[in-house]
Design goal:
Layout: H1 3-15, H2 17-25, H3 30-46, H4 52-61, H5 70-80, H6 87-93, H7 104-107, E1 112-117, H8 124-134, E2 138-142, H9 145-157, E3 162-165, E4 170-171, E5 182-186, E6 195-201, H10 213-222, E7 224-232, H11 237-247, E8 251-255, E9 262-264, E10 279-282, H12 286-298, E11 303-306, H13 312-323, E12 331-334, E13 348-351, E14 355-359, E15 365-369, H14 372-379, E16 392-396, H15 399-410, E17 419-421, H16 425-434, H17 440-450, E18 457-459, H18 463-471, H19 479-486, H20 495-509, H21 516-523, H22 533-553, H23 563-582, H24 584-597, H25 611-623, H26 625-634, H27 639-661, H28 666-672, H29 678-693, H30 702-716
Length: about 725
């Protein structure tokens, strides 16, 4: 056979529309068809010999009968894609077109759906909670532990016994641990089997969230309650109405208006010298949080600090400090974490920036202007009803951002178009039955690629799940346990937390309980107060590790037996972190002194941390699933070996640092960090111009003239 002729005919076979149609009928979509053909072509062209029947067909197709090759192509495709043999079964399992049918208990009753629609600070949730408190039994489902804890306290203060259920903790209202008729929980923890009189689903617009939207869909379709009170933005009304139409349930809409006026100011703050009591500066990165808080305290003002990775207890203490009229702290610096979950007495919201990094539905990181929904959620925190400020104000730090903020706030909120879905462990187990040799990561990939959803739904982002699945793939676990470990709520950008999960999984696989002593050795507990930002960030990571232990302890009680002891030391750690946050400007100064001495380089997501941690994070951010393998190896390699392994990543990490530090002019960065004032800048500019005129920058030097002309020549080229 002529290799050239065979290759030409194989390519002709690939391009035939009839062959592509036959492939589709046998489960090969365009992507799988292409991959199967590449593999098939490689097999034929690189084999020293092929079977006799295939040799005969290859000889025949040289005479023009290329379609006769299809049975051999399909046989090869089934070898590399085993699911082709059971494609019909897999398609049925991954058919997500009728989610209401997954909840027969909810479909067996006629539910009344009441949508409380309105902006932040309109009283919509208050009215829903009043109905919750007056019911014989009820469940509150919120997006945050802080919100669930607030309703838990309010209920018990109103003499309505209520339990608290979150991923990490169970608190019973009754001393004998009997379940109370009312429950306040995080939305992922709500039961779809327990009957209630009233259910409250808070922040319903999060049903569109690319990562967590599935939990709101599950609660809305699956809760067994006579009345479902849904609270959130009016932008979700149409979607909720359509979803309820598919279940045969009507939606009653109650609209609310903001209880206090909110004014967008005509001027920007421009300078931190213009701050007033009750001001809150909203930043979208820890870097800005640290920078702004230091500049504020340099002016002799105290400020409270709140950001997402702080423990709930620390956030509450900082909020309490800011709200206390007798406390000298009158300024708050926060991320958009204040958008929900905290009651704050804010007079004026000041956006330090209106650009925010986000993760899109494909799991890709994007940097874009904040949405109208986000802007309204944050701005609405100003002038809270019942606080000392009867109206709210909103503006920006920089004048250039003010017009854009006004445009964003004036635009209508985009309607919520679709509700999130996520494969259940039962569905993945059925997939595994048909594909016993596939990894969990591959099973999820195949499930998503075969899944069918109608226009009202989308499949949530599974990148975090796949990252953890790849990281623990080499550890022998049964499928259900592996699935649970992969759904653990952790930030994959935290190397210490990821490696701890890896160690948990390994110990679990050996059937060795994770004891309190083991955890203390691993985290080096007890820990002291942080001396710099790097140590504060590490304490936050240790707090996340304790959260992870508690989360796993409710799923594998016998293997994580010391939840009570861990909760005790977590409270102590919360107190230590509170001390660190109260002294945050001292920690920043210590970090910057260390950086100047060359002992540290980057902090948190975009601020100086130790080099090893920065390098590990660089691996995590840039290499996706590969970083899971890097972490799993790093957890087993001794420190000296790990340093050697990381050496290859360091040059890339340094390049990344140089790029990030190069954004914006040096003058702007120094101004932002408070190291340079406008007056100093003008003086420097004047001095530079004088020196330039006097020839002190090389204009009088022949050598410098020559180098300047060379530079001009380069620019012309």
């Amino acid at each position: 056979l002529s290799a050239g002729e065979v290759l030409k005919n194989l390519n002709k076979f690939y391009k035939r529309k009839e062959i592509q149609r036959l492939g589709a009928e046998n489960g090969l979509d365009a992507r799988l068809f292409h991959q199967a053909f590449i593999s098939f072509r490689k097999y034929i062209m690189e084999s020293s010999s092929v079977s006799a029947d295939l040799h005969i067909i290859l000889n025949d197709i040289c005479c023009g009968h290329v379609d006769d090759l299809f049975p051999f192509f399909l046989r090869h495709a089934k070898q590399i894609f085993p699911m082709l043999d059971c494609m019909d079964d897999l398609r049925k399992i991954s058919d997500l077109r009728l989610p209401p049918n997954w909840y027969p208990d909810a479909r067996a009753i006629q539910r009344k759906i009441i949508f409380h629609a309105g902006p932040t600070n309109s009283g919509k949730t208050y009215h829903a909670i009043q109905r919750f408190l007056s019911a014989k039994s009820g469940v509150y489902c919120g997006p945050l532990k802080l919100l669930a804890h607030e309703i838990f306290q309010k209920s018990n203060d109103a003499n309505v016994p209520c339990d608290l259920v979150t991923g990490e903790e169970r608190v019973y209202a009754n001393e004998d641990a009997r379940q109370a008729p009312h429950i306040a929980c995080t939305i992922e923890m709500c039961s779809t089997n327990t009957p209630y009189e009233v259910a409250v689903i808070d922040e319903i617009q999060m049903i569109r969230d690319p990562a967590r939207g599935w939990a709101w869909t599950r609660a809305l379709l699956g809760l067994c309650a006579e009345e479902i009170h849904v609270c959130g933005e009016a932008a979700a009304i149409d979607l909720v109405t359509e979803l309820m139409y598919t279940t045969g349930e009507e939606v009653e809409v109650r609209n609310y208006k903001r209880l206090t006026p909110l004014t967008v100011l005509d001027y920007a703050l421009e300078s931190l010298d213009n701050l007033q009591p009750g001001d809150c500066i909203v930043c979208f990165s820890k870097n800005d949080i640290y920078s702004v808080s230091r500049q504020i305290e340099a002016r002799g003002l105290e400020c409270a600090v709140i950001y997402g990775s702080l423990p709930p207890g620390t956030k509450l203490e900082q909020a309490k400090k800011f709200n206390d009229p007798n406390d000298p702290c009158k300024i708050l610096v926060a991320t958009d974490a204040i958008g929900m979950g905290l009651n704050l007495c804010i007079k004026r919201i000041i956006f330090n920036s209106i650009v925010k990094p986000t993760i899109n539905e494909k799991g890709e990181k994007e940097i874009d202007s904040i949405t109208t929904s986000q802007a309204l959620q944050i701005a609405g925190r100003a002038g809270r009803y019942g606080s000392s400020f009867k109206q709210g104000e909103v503006t920006t730090m920089h004048h250039d951002d003010l017009m854009q903020l006004k445009e964003i706030l004036s635009e209508p909120v985009r309607p919520v178009k679709a509700a999130g879905l996520h494969p259940t462990p039962e569905q993945i187990e059925m997939f595994a039955y048909h594909l016993p040799d596939a990894t969990l990561s591959n099973l999820i990939d195949i499930f998503v690629s075969l899944s069918q959803v109608d226009g009202l739904y989308f499949v949530c982002n599974i990148d975090d799940f796949k990252f953890l699945a790849d990281m623990i793939q080499h550890i022998p676990l049964n499928l259900r346990s592996r699935y649970v470990f992969c759904t653990a709520p952790l930030n994959r950008k935290e190397p210490f937390v990821c490696t701890t999960l890896l160690k948990f999984a390994r110990q679990f696989s050996r059937n060795e309980p994770l004891t309190f002593d083991w955890l203390c050795r691993h985290t080096k507990w007890p820990l002291g107060a942080p001396k710099n930002i790097k140590e504060l960030v590490h304490l936050e990571a240790v707090h996340d590790v304790f959260d992870l232990y508690l989360w796993l302890s409710y799923r594998f009680m016998d293997m994580f037996p010391d939840a009570v002891l861990v909760r005790d030391i977590q409270k102590k750690l919360d107190d230590i972190i509170q001390v660190g946050v109260c002294n945050i400007t001292k920690l920043i100064r210590a970090s910057q002194s260390a950086a100047a001495a060359g002992t540290a380089t980057v902090v948190s997501e975009d601020f100086p941390l130790s080099r090893t941690k920065r390098d590990t994070r660089a691996v995590s951010d840039r290499h996706g699933a590969k970083s899971a393998e890097a972490l799993s190896i790093a957890a087993e390699v001794p420190r000296e070996g790990r340093a050697k392994n990381l050496k290859g990543y360091r040059s890339a990490a340094r390049q990344e640092d140089l790029k990030s530090h190069g954004r914006g002019s040096l003058a702007n960065r120094l101004l932002r960090e408070g190291l340079l004032t406008q007056e100093m800048l003008r003086q420097l500019e004047s001095e530079w111009q004088d020196q330039h005129r006097n020839g002190r920058y090389g204009l009088g030097s022949k050598r410098d003239d020559h180098s300047s002309s060379k530079e001009i020549g380069k620019k012309k080229k």
